[in-house]
Design goal:
- The protein has 21 helices and 22 strands.
- It is an alpha+beta fold.
- Strands 12, 13, 14, 15, 16, 17, 18 and 22 form an eight-stranded mixed sheet that branches. Strands 3, 4, 5, 6, 7 and 8 form a six-stranded mixed sheet that branches. A five-stranded mixed sheet has the order 1-11-10-2-9.
- Bound molecules: adenosine-5'-triphosphate.
- The site of adenosine-5'-triphosphate has 14 residues, from strand 1, strand 2 and strand 11.
Length: 576
């Protein structure tokens, strides 16, 4: 397939802010895509080259991409620099400067999707000496074969800044419509996606084998599974209503969730966002190799930063281990402990459909406990007073609270599901009317007075999963330290947009001064949820839910935007 077909779709997508319209554009397009191209096209509509877990990340430096533009168009580099100064976006620079290519440089032929894909892979995977020239030449050769509109998108893809506003769920919706004629079949695609969070594989299976094939997608060791999540309740006593019978109560640690896969003797670690984080935790890999038996397995746990005395430290301390450089130095500076709490696969057998206690028994058998890798502390009880006592002890240990888990025969591991089989109870819930929310930054207001020159407040949204949109829920201007305020422009800058992003819903009165593509997740503490005419979350009779007196707590780099608090959760907390 010719890349130009995709370029036409990008153009249409760029001109719409409506999620429904996007789905329509995409599903019409998917119908025309040949089977062998559908996986590639699915990734490219997301501006990616592979699923998130494969770590094939494009993010060419702007300077290098512009050198390719200069080479492709035979344009002097000073002219390229000047145009960038005028337009501010490398994609637009490419579009403008490559309108007329010098005849001598125009090669014959078109750029197919496959050529584009392999060219971009070559660029993403290049490293070492000579790689810079190779990247420039590869991109320039592709730029020469595309229209000026194509050059704009090609440069943006190479920079990792395509930002069409399309998310994985948008693609799944559109695939369901394109290949089955019915949006409701997305539920089947979503189930498969929870076992295999790779839109490319799902798209190709659907195109080649239909829904029947998609239904057969199962767990595969080495490929991450969407993690099972917790519900919350309004009162601790409600835990017993939701989980009748014996409750397993775990300590809840304030760290980062890790899903560990061992296959062919090799350990791979995945984060909550399905990113591979193995290189960040060489120490954890070593503990797992030494202390967990099994030819192949998938286990889950929470990795927590600990002090020299072995005391748990807050999440922010662990976040300092999120780095590509000086890893060894930080392994020594910030030691960690991995608390394992689930087993999903062992020696060729899936445990996903086994009840919780059976999974735990299997886990206990393969783990040798130690200072840096151990099992989560758990009790099993039917008595809510015992649950509360365990909760208080957990707080005394410096932990966040507890997670109550069902032990009933149906207490299976449900990938990607936030259900009543697991319920969290945290210290914030005990402080009256206070709850924390993980919200997505969709805009900012410029600071005044002491905050002149930086952002004064952020506009935050909850995720409406059903409609696959981000709905404004609060404007947050407190809780920021000077360091965080200083950091915001740099953190958010790469997601800045000159218009309201697609899939973002805001009332006119709340329109921010700066828009951001929904990417960054922050945790805020709120005093109260009310109905307000200026927000749009779970709107009813013209009034949306709004969080009053929000206070910034921290960045949640471990979450992607679709993992933020949902509008439905907001509703249930409000009703509580
Ligand atoms: P929070 O913001 O409360 O940490 P969350 O939104 O990240 O929660 P939840 O599903 O609400 O996610 O809470 C579950 C998370 O708690 C898990 O993803 C995991 O990272 C962490 N956790 C800590 N201890 C445990 C445990 N014993 N069992 C399961 N999850 C645990």
């Amino acid at each position: 397939m010719d890349f130009q077909k995709l370029v036409d779709v990008y153009e249409e997508l760029e001109n719409t802010a409506s999620g429904n319209k996007m789905r329509e554009i995409l599903s019409d397009f998917f119908k025309e895509v040949p089977e062998e191209d559908i996986a590639i096209v699915s990734y490219l509509t997301l501006g990616r080259l592979a699923s998130e877990y494969e770590s094939v990340v494009l993010g060419m430096a702007e300077k290098i991409a512009l050198k390719a533009v200069s080479l492709a168009g035979g344009v002097d580099s000073s002219k390229v620099k000047q145009t960038l100064g005028e337009m501010g976006d490398a994609g637009l620079v490419a579009e403008k400067l490559l309108k007329k290519k010098p005849i001598t440089l125009v090669p014959v032929g078109k750029l197919t999707i496959h050529d584009l894909f392999s060219g971009l892979h070559k660029i993403a995977e290049a490293s070492g000496s000579g790689s810079q020239d190779m990247k420039i030449n590869t991109l320039a050769a592709m730029l020469q074969k595309v229209s000026s509109g194509g050059a704009k998108y090609l440069v943006r893809i190479a920079l990792g800044t395509l930002r069409m506003g399309v998310g994985d769920m948008t693609v799944l919706d559109s695939l369901a419509i394109a290949f089955t004629g019915e949006k409701k079949n997305k539920a089947i695609l979503e189930r498969a996606y929870n076992f295999c969070p790779d839109v490319g594989i799902i798209a190709e299976t659907l195109a080649k084998k239909g829904l029947k094939g998609v239904k057969k997608i199962e767990v595969k060791v080495g490929r991450p599974i969407k993690m099972m999540l917790c519900q919350r309740v309004g009162k601790i006593a409600e835990i017993a209503d939701k989980i009748p019978g014996k409750i397993a109560v775990d300590e809840k640690y304030d760290g980062e969730r890790l899903q560990v896969h061992k296959v062919n003797g090799e350990i791979t670690l995945f984060s909550r966002r399905m990113e591979e984080v193995t290189l960040q935790f060489p120490d954890v890999v070593e503990y797992l190799q030494k202390q967990v038996k099994g030819k192949d397995f998938i286990v889950e746990g929470e990795v927590v930063a600990i002090s020299e005395e072995g005391k748990a430290l807050p999440f922010q301390v662990l976040m300092r281990r999120r780095r590509k450089h000086d890893v060894e130095e930080y392994v020594a500076k910030i030691p960690v402990c991995l608390f394992l709490f689930d087993l999903l696969y062992l020696n060729g057998k899936s445990y996903l459909d086994k009840p919780y206690l059976e999974r735990m028994t299997a886990l206990e058998k393969i783990v040798k406990k130690g200072e840096h890798l151990t099992l989560t502390k758990t009790i099993v009880t039917e008595d809510v007073d015992e649950v509360e006592k365990f909760f208080n002890e957990s707080l005394q240990q410096g932990y966040e609270g507890i997670i109550a888990k069902s032990t009933a025969p149906e207490s299976i591991y449900k990938p990607g599901t936030r259900g009543w089989l697991w319920i969290k109870w945290k210290k914030e819930y005990v402080q009256e009317m206070q709850d924390t929310f993980d919200l997505v930054v969709i805009g900012a207001f410029l600071g005044k007075g002491r905050r002149a020159g930086v952002y004064g407040a952020l506009l935050l949204a909850a995720y409406n999963k059903k409609e696959d949109v981000f709905e404004s829920v609060t404007k947050c201007g407190t809780g920021f330290t000077d360091a965080v305020l200083g950091e915001l422009p740099q953190r958010l800058g790469k997601y800045k947009m000159d218009r309201q992003p697609a899939r973002v819903k805001v009332k006119k009165e709340m329109a921010p001064e700066v828009w951001f593509e929904p990417q960054v997740v922050v945790e805020v503490l709120g005093a109260e949820i009310t109905r307000s005419p200026i927000h749009i979350c779970a709107v009813k009779d013209g009034k949306g839910l709004a969080i009053r007196f929000p206070r910034f707590i921290q960045f949640r780099d471990d979450k992607n935007p679709e993992q933020a608090t949902t509008s439905k959760e907001m509703e249930s907390i409000y009703e509580n």
